[in-house]
């Protein structure tokens, strides 16, 4: 047998024994797994259902149409494109559809909680477009909408981005739209992180206010790794778009064209099948219970961390994640991430707003509850987890303590299946 299978088994063991607190990760169902490991991976299907550039696409047409229809039902939207291979590619398609290189955009600063694709200098978005950004207030850790408006009116970006990778509060999409309308900007929401909570109405809906919405399918939505584009209510009607030949196209056609042939070739129909299965699972009432538990766990973990003297940015969470500012504990994000890994607790170092350390060191860690909730953990386990993290942070260089915490982590996760739906 190929050594790769030994490595896969090793990784399965690691995932089973450990506490997964990376906010962007989750455990998919066996059915999602099965779809991704199926013969659908053999099929080329450039184009869209009914309009392919290859023969033999009748079956994958049905698969992709099911994925689209389930996503429409789940989010209550009229347009969905399930082909983006990743969240970043869904986002790249938005840039291609809406802007010309050199146009100005406005996103949340990466160091304040934004994503690379929202204008970071090392990403195509920051390389090919002019970037202005908004951030959070120093005292509260909350988005500073006044500063956002001030910068928007002064800089007049053509597109504004509402979205984050490390912000624990809900977004006021109506406020974003008010500002975008003042300057005639397109408003794009990237709900990659909270999509599962948005789908179940636990957070504000971006669709009423934003022109276009992207997401990943693998975080709180608990599907396979991938991306997706959806349209808000008034984008199709209000935005004509001139092609290079001078034709006016509907926005849905422009978005489809931006994904294929704009930035991608053949779609990953095995992953699209996995997306369809995950959307079916998310439509089920059980997913509502799951999403509510994710949030309840995040709130319980944040409280338990605060009780142990940790500083949580903005003082709590409305979603599945939180940012821990470690500066009052005298440790940095890098060493904390490393020590936690030795105790079989996985999370990622993360910059905190107004951080004085580099992205390689950082002053914080980001914690999320989507994955541990899938493993069946509840509010009362969150106090235990905060205690374990606290023990690690207080004994960051003491290997004996780290080994003893690891034992406790392994005991806690013993007998808790990776996910079978
Ligand atoms: N958008 C946001 C807000 C994200 O947090 C992420 C990933 O963490 C992405 C996009 C990119 O997703 P992917 O890693 O699938 O490219």
TrEMBL record:
Keywords: Amino-acid biosynthesis, Cytoplasm, Methyltransferase, One-carbon metabolism, Pyridoxal phosphate, Transferase. This is Serine hydroxymethyltransferase. GO terms for molecular function: glycine hydroxymethyltransferase activity; methyltransferase activity; pyridoxal phosphate binding. Its cofactor is pyridoxal 5'-phosphate. (6S)-5,6,7,8-tetrahydrofolate binds at residues 110, 114-116, 358-360. GO terms for cellular component: cytosol. One of its GO terms (biological process) is tetrahydrofolate interconversion. Gene3D superfamilies: Aspartate Aminotransferase, domain 1, Type I PLP-dependent aspartate aminotransferase-like (Major domain). The gene is glyA. It is found in: Cytoplasm. The lineage of its organism: Bacteria, Pseudomonadati, Bacteroidota, Flavobacteriia, Flavobacteriales.
């Amino acid at each position: 047998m190929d050594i790769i299978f030994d490595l896969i088994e090793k990784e399965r063991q690691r995932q089973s024994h450990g506490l997964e607190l990376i906010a962007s990760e989750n455990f998919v169902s066996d059915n999602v797994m099965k779809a991704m490991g199926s013969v659908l991976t053999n099929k080329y299907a450039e184009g869209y259902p009914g309009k392919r550039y290859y023969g033999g696409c009748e079956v994958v047409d049905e698969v992709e149409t099911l994925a689209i229809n389930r996503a429409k039902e789940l989010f209550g939207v009229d347009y969905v494109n399930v082909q983006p291979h990743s969240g970043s590619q869904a986002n790249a398609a938005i840039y291609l559809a809406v802007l010309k290189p050199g146009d100005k955009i406005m996103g949340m600063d990466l160091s304040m909680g934004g994503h690379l694709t929202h204008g970071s200098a090392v990403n195509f978005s920051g390389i090919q477009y002019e970037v202005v950004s908004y951030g959070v207030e120093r005292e509260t850790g909350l988005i500073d909408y006044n500063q956002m408006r001030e910068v928007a009116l002064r800089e007049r970006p053509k597109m504004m981005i509402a979205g984050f990778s490390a912000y624990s509060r809900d977004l006021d999409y109506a406020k974003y739209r008010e500002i975008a309308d003042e300057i005639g900007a397109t408003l794009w929401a990237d709900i990659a992180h909270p999509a599962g909570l948005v789908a179940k109405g636990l957070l504000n809906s971006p669709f009423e206010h934003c022109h276009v919405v992207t997401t990943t399918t693998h975080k709180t939505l608990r599907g396979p790794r991938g991306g997706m584009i959806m349209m808000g209510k008034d984008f199709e009607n209000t935005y004509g778009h001139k092609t290079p030949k001078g034709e006016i196209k509907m926005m849905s056609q422009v978005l489809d064209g931006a994904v294929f042939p704009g930035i991608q070739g053949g779609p990953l129909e095995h992953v699209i099948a996995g997306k369809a299965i995950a959307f079916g699972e998310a439509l089920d009432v059980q997913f509502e219970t799951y999403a509510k538990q994710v949030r309840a766990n995040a709130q319980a973990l944040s409280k338990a961390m605060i009780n142990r003297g940790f500083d949580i940015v903005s003082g709590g969470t409305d979603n599945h994640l939180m940012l821990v500012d470690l500066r009052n504990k005298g440790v940095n994000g890098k060493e904390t991430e490393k020590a936690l890994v030795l105790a079989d607790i996985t999370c990622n170092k993360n910059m905190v707003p107004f951080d004085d350390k580099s992205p390689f060191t950082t002053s914080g860690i980001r914690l999320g509850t989507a994955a541990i909730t899938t493993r069946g953990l509840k509010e009362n386990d969150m106090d235990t987890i905060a205690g374990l993290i606290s023990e690690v942070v207080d004994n960051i260089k003491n290997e004996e303590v780290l080994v003893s915490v690891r034992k406790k982590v392994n005991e806690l996760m013993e007998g808790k299946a990776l996910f079978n739906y």
